[in-house]
Amino acid sequence: MTFRLSSDAVRLAIPALSLTLLLSAVFWLQPRAMSYIGLNLLFNLAVPIALATIAQMLVMAVNDLDLSMGAFVSFVACVTATFLRDAPAIGILILAGAVAAYAALGVVIHLRNLPSIVVTLGMSFVWGGVAVLLLPAPGGQAPDWVRWLMTVKPPLAPMAIVASIIIAVIAHFIVKRSSLGVLIRGVGGNQRSVERAGWSIVAARATAYALAGLFAVLAGIALVGLTTSADANIALRYTLLSIAGVILGGGEFIGGRVSPIGAVIGALTLTLAGSFLSFLRISPDWQIGAQGAILIIVLALRLMLNRLEKREKRR
Amino acid sequence: MNTLVRQFGKPWVWSWLAAFIVWFLTILVTGGAGTLGLSQAAFTFAAFSVIVGIGQMFVITLGPGNIDLSVPATMTLAGTVALKLMNVENGMILPGLLLAVFIGLGVGLCNYTLIKALRIPPIIATLSMSFIVQSGAIWTNRGLRIKPPSVLADFTTSSTLGVPNVAIVAFLISILAWILLEKTIYGRWISAIGQSMPAARMAGIPVDGTRFVTYLFCAVLASISGYLLACFSGGAALNMGAEYLLMSIAVVVIGGTAVAGGDSNVPGIWGASLFMFLVVSMLNTYGLGAGIRLIMTGLIIISVIMLAGGRRGMR
After folding, report:
1. Measured between alpha carbons, how far is A165 from B115 in angstroms, rounded to an integer?
2. In the structure, what pLDDT confidence band is assigned to residue B144 with cuts at 50, 70 and 90?
3. What pLDDT does A105 receive?
4. For residue B40, how far is the Cα from the chain centroid?
5. Closest partner residue to A112 among B119, B121, B313, by Cβ?
6. Do A299 and B310 touch (CB under 8 A)?
7. Domain boundary assignment for chain B
């Protein structure tokens, strides 16, 4: 390990490097960001994005893609700001039902051999519709405990950093260290061989989807904790952000090659990109475009490092 | 059931059937009033989805992972810039159209350069590109709403012999696409690439060239659609392409094109586009609120794909 890095570690090195680069650039532009409060402000919104990215990663681990992520997180946010505050028991029941719906989606997609893109596309309308029914206009209020959780000030490091580390570690243990995680990634890698080894693919896919649903629920709750109120369209951009986060973090669309730690780092990088651009004083017109450019640059960097890795191997 | 399935062997029959049923259900409620209006509106709005959908279909036919997410941004940019160039002058209609096509070519070129040179997965490449294109549209638009030249506005909003002009344009493009797909070597090539890229490469098919042309074609169709849509709706708006992202994917899949690639069909796109519009107008006719309408749209998409998926599974 000291001299030769595993390919997993190399995979992780690229997102980590891009995050470090971006962070140093931000510190260089705005030295005052280099403080407890500054860091918290920079990374605050990364917590829900990181959770949504982990959820997307779990779906991508079984070779599927969830296009309903943004609508679902918005829906959860609406439930959190209404039922979870006013009637916690019903709220928890609804959220549990939503996770069960995710598991059912996994089962249906597997049994009927459906393209996940289309099914989740349809589901995005359903979640969006329910969210509009719950909160026709922006409103609601975050439950106090959620608010407390998202604004707590732990010693040493700000909440956003601590939370990101906790999310990364938990997801790492589920996906990389547990037998369940191996099974899920196995389905993505080679479904037939996992099936022949006697595992139930349906159960594996359902579990992956249920876990994804669980993380997405957490993302919605965390988001409301930050924004204090909800709206049916609050998280629509999470669909694309979460996919980009997984890819930035070294994940692949097929083959069950995913990295939870990388995904969290990818989410942090995406969040930071926004702050970086506003520190650069780029005209708001070009902010989205510059975000796209950053995505491209990071991926180009990854290609370069992958080539280096291959050259090393050939030696 | 099996004999029925064989009778309805062509995948596109299903989307037409679904569109017809929804049309019939709507007519039933209105009691035959406004039948002509509904049909004309359906063909008008379907035309835009058809033009975008055909481009998306060509890209999806290229195989797993191939998708163009830059469609909405391309539509917006083409519509905005073309209207700005034409500046309400009838003499500038042709240059405006040429400029729109040129923008499409540019976006397609950038898309494929990213995919090929940086080996970025198409989803992420076209997504990053769409950020940049969208920024360009914001920058050129500046909140101004320029009206289309009067001749063009009349052309896009009126009909010839009862058929909306935009539908005629879409029909001509569909015929071109059908010929390209079914009667030319290029159509065989993209199907072959979609079924197996390595096999296509071994068979001596110019894989890169074919994929490049396909991404160009998709972007050009998107910009033509944006050009027409901007003229039809009396000016370009920054969010005018937004709904066509999911729409273009949905019509392709509901139309019976295999998501895994290598199998596409043009008539299905028409059926699916009509269906998607008619569903919304049916639910509107029934006087349902936005929330219920979204939920129903989602559930209908899922049921259609489940029916269609079952058909594919039975083969």
Report:
1. 33
2. low
3. 92
4. 18
5. B313
6. no
7. 43-309
% residues pLDDT > 70 (chain B): 91
In degrees and rounded to multiples of 5, residue A156 shows phi and psi of 70, -65
The CA distance from B113 to the nearest CA of chain A, in Å, is 11
> What is the spatial distance between Cα B287 and Cα B297, in angstroms, rounded to a whole number?
14
Identify the pLDDT of residue B290.
79
Percent of chain B at pLDDT above 90?
2
pLDDT digits (tens, 9 = 90+) for B257-280: 776 666 777 888 888 888 888 888
Beta carbons of A24 and A144 less than 8 angstroms apart: no
Inter-chain touch B129–A292, beta carbons under 8 Å: yes
Query: Is there a contact between B136 and A289 if contact means CB atoms under 8 Å apart?
Result: yes
Output the pLDDT for position A50. 94
CB–CB contact B120 A296 (8 Å) = yes
Classify residue A307 as exposed, middle or buried by CB count within 10 Å of its CB (0-12, 13-18, 19+).
exposed
- The pTM score is 0.81
Residue B112 has a CB neighbour count (10 Å cut-off) of 22
Of B253, B293, B298, the CB nearest to A124: B298
User: Mean pLDDT over residues B83-93, rounded?
Assistant: 77
- Nearest by CB to residue B299, choosing from A108, A126, A288, is A126
The nearest CA of chain B is from the CA of A161 a distance in Å of 27
Q: Which residues of B touch A129 (CB under 8 A)?
A: 290-298
CA B159 and chain centroid, separation? 21
Mean pLDDT of B166-182: 87
Quote ipTM for the complex.
0.79
Residue with more model confidence, B107 or A315: B107
Query: Which sign, positive or negative, has the C-alpha torsion A162, A164, A169, A170?
Result: positive
Beta carbons of B250 and A132 less than 8 Å apart: no
Predicted confidence (pLDDT) at residue B305 exceeds the cutoff of 60 = yes
The contact set of A with B (CB < 8 A) is: 67, 108, 112-115, 117-119, 121-133, 136, 240, 243-244, 247, 252-254, 283, 285-293, 295-296, 299-300, 303
CA angle, B183 as apex, B177 and B185 as ends, to 5°? 100
Fold for the domain defined by B43-309: ABC transporter involved in vitamin B12 uptake, BtuC (1.10.3470)
Kindly determine whether residue B298 and residue A123, on different chains, have CB atoms separated by under 8 Å: yes
Q: Strand runs (DSSP E) across chain A, as ranges?
A: none
Number of residues that make up chain A: 315
Helix, coil or strand: residue A139? strand
The tokens of A139 are what? 């409103």
Answer left, alpha or beta for residue A254, where phi above 0 means left and psi between -120 and 50 means alpha: beta
Helix residue ranges, H only, chain B: 2-7, 11-30, 35-61, 71-86, 93-117, 122-141, 150-157, 165-183, 185-195, 197-202, 207-232, 243-254, 266-285, 290-314
Low-confidence ranges of chain A (pLDDT < 50): 1-2
Three-state DSSP at A272 gives helix
Q: Which of A196-205, B138-147, B292-301 has the largest mean confidence? A: A196-205
Buried b (16+ CB within 10 A) or exposed e, A190-201: ebeebeeeebeb
